[in-house]
Structures are given as C-alpha cells and as structure tokens.
Amino acid sequence: MARMKFLCDSERCIECNGCVTACKNEHEVPWGVNRRRVVTLEDGVPGERSISVACMHCTDAPCAAVCPVDCFYTTDDGIVLHDKDLCIGCGYCFYACPFGAPQYPQKEAFGVRGKMDKCTFCAGGPEGKDNSEEERQKYGRNRIAEGKLPLCAEMCSTKALLAGDGDMVADIYRERVMKRSTRPQSWGWLTAYQEDV
Amino acid sequence: MKPRIMLKVGSLALLAVLATGCNRATDVTVYEPGVYKGSKDPLVKMHATAEHKAQLQERLTKSQADR
Question: From B34, which residue of chain A is nearest by alpha-carbon distance?
Fold first, then answer.
C-alpha cells in the first residue's frame, strides 16, 4: 500500500528556499507562519548541509498522541491532517513534534495563540468539499485531490526534496546514492517512519 | 373576571417557560480518548481508489525522478 513520505537529499539541497516560497505562495500562508523552512547545519564550515524541513507526516505521529481534543486524523496513505474547528491552540503538539512543524498565528494581544497550522502535504483538511473556498482559506490548496503532489517538491530545482509514495521515493534516492557512491543520509526518516532508506 | 383569566394564562405561560428551561440538551459530544470526532474529509475516500494512487505515482515518476 502506498505511504506518502517526504525525503530531503542533503547532498543536493542548495538552500535556495524555493520550496519555502512555493509553499507560502500556493497556500497563501500568513506572515509569521512557516509550514516549511530550510535549516542549515554547520553553516560556514566544511561539511555544511542544508535540509528542507516541514511536517514529516510521521507513522506514529506524536502530535496526534498528545492532542487533548484529538483533532488529528491520518489518511489511508499516511498523510497526517488536522481539524482547525476542533483545535484549541494549546501548543502540546508543538512540544511533541521532533521537527518543530506546528505553527501558530498570533492573532491577539498577550501572546494568545490561534489555531495550529502545519504542512498538509498539499491535501487540505476536513472542510466540506475538496478545494472549496472554505478549505482553501483554512488549510490551503488541495493539490492531492487534483492528482498532484506537494508543490515544494515539484518546484525543487535540484530535485533535492522528494514527496510521494515512500517506496518510489526510496527507490529514486537509492539509485542516486549508488550513482554517486556515498552513504545514504535520509535525514529524519528514522524519527518519522521508524525505518531507513 | 378579566384579571383572573389573565392570571391563569400568565401562570400557565410561566409554567411552560420553566418546564422548557429545565430541559437538558442530550446531543453533547462525549469525549473518548484517541478518537477523532471532527468532520469527515472527502479526500480519504478518494485516496482509497487505485485510480487516484496510480495518478499520483505517475506524477511522481514524471516530475521528481531523475532524467
């Protein structure tokens, strides 16, 4: 069965932030909320690596485990989504997430949090019809319903970011590793999916 | 005569208001840990179809595999 996964090839990521821009533009993500971001490790020293990070849609999602109102659900192919009508903005998921994916728009004074926002794997949320105006406003565009994959991966100029069926993603990555004869560095896979490429 | 009728009607109305006011709502959502009770996502049904899966796999091969 297909299981949707993200994989960022750190050998290829050039820190262009194209994925971040594509995500922001596609879903009209508000100012201050970053569903995806590029993290650079060992910046400025030999061996520097950049990784594009967002919600990894974990197999056993810790965010869902700690949610006091159970606003998370997982689709058949492993996309972790949430219902903003149920979310109370408590912030527990932010503390539980190993990738720092959950984001909160600060709408009111005194640091009061709004409803949690995170990467939806471009699959929208539980809002009436797919790609309805309400869904677009709350969760962003639903590309999966249109038969498309996440725009961040499709826009990646070096094809560092891969998104789709986990087995196929692993095959593409394995082929690359064989060609360049390096060690596989599937960053975040063990944490998110409890398995490596 | 008139004030008596008015008093009766008034007391009946008051009784009706009190009776409906004490009515308990029975449609509360009972909490069960770990159970999602939000709205249904139509995408979940669509995802289950082999056609949709094949479409996404084809898209992955076309747009993300190395040339």
Answer: A70
Cα–Cα nearest to A96, from A51, A58, A140: A58
A117: three-class secondary structure by DSSP: strand
Whether residue A128 contacts residue A134, with contact meaning beta carbons closer than 8 Å, is answered with: yes
In 3D space, the residue among A21, A10, A19 whose CA is nearest the CA of residue A50 turns out to be A10
pTM reported for the whole predicted model: 0.83
Which top CATH class is A4-193? alpha beta
From chain B, pick out residues whose CB is under 8 angstroms from the CB of A142.
Answer: 43
Q: What is the pLDDT of residues A19-33, one digit of tens each?
A: 999 999 999 998 889
Q: How far, in Å, are A7, A44, A49, A189 from residue A185 at the CA level? A: 10, 20, 11, 9
Comparing CB atoms, the residue among B34, B37, B57 nearest residue A165 is: B57
